[in-house]
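Protein modeling request. Please complete all fields; requests missing the sequence field cannot be processed.
Requester role: graduate student
Desired output: 3D structure, token encoding
Chains: 1
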Amino acid sequence: MKRIAILTSGGDAPGMNASIRAATMIGRASGVEVLGIERGYRGLLDDAFVELSSNDVAGILREGGTMLGSARCKEFHAREVRDRARQILGKHAIDGLIVIGGNGSLTGALHLADPEEIGAGRPLKIIGIPASIDNDLGLTGLSIGVDTAMNTIVEACDKIADTATAHDRTFIVEVMGRDCGYLAMTSAIAVGADLALFPEAGKTEADIVHQIVDTVMTIRQRQSRRARRVIIIKAEGVQVQIDRLKTLVDAKLRERAPDAEPSSIETRVTVLGHVVRGGRPSAFDRLLGSRLANVAVRGLIAGATHKMAAWMPPVELPEEIATRSKHDPYCWLVDLPAVLAETDNLLRGRSPLARWRAGAFDEIEDALLL
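Delivered output (370 residues):
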């Protein structure tokens, strides 16, 4: 292993820069040349390589986003496009590739290093690092960026709760997460929300509206004025548009409380959107990004490939799928095809973890109203 490259792909996540920094410094300290690829797979096809030195990455730890940039590249699904990417990697004499990103990014890495596609060409070793605020990757306890995103949501909801309490208001706060409800679930607990809406629950539009209205009416009956505000966290993956949800809920509330002042029962909506993905990474994400990069680079130099660095896999894994890193007792190298298979199960609600998440909230929904 003489020369490795690093790319960040897909949605940016706070902590990616910590991974770039650690991978660069550990690689160079091990006598390996380190190059960065700007703008993900798009930059790879554009031959956008830059040399990375310790000085280049020294100050990036505290910055959000990614210094290498990121971009979507749909044409990377085509075999002939990946062939061109492999030729460019070969031109730069790249022996190993670190891919920092989510499900689509790691899938692209797996195809890029497919021995059948490479054939008699220059071999390529790859290791992925999970980075996604959605926390929708299998076989890792957390992905880079999740902790920062959760803290951003909690801070925003704490501020919303202040005005909601002052005016006895109901707020529906939509958070990011794509098809995974992890951020909505965990932030709902952290902010003391009255209800969490997430796609894993599999509820119909009518069920969701009914659940919100029942929650609001129950809380409105409380004697303490300060306890009558309602905070509802909605995952963006819930298949009811936020404006439509507000309209339906407001109509049902007027039916249930026809004598109430409209302003007292009308809901308010806040969509946090991309603010959840930004900001300086938390201390945990800086540590997580650095630790996963440490394990990834050392594994690559030792000859590992088609793996993903993982932090405390949430399930017991057989030895042929996962190996605990000797460099970090909480980090593992897990089989990348197994990661992508479990990710698919997680997003489809077929994995034990997905069923546990949904079941856990079924058990505590009543407690949220106490």
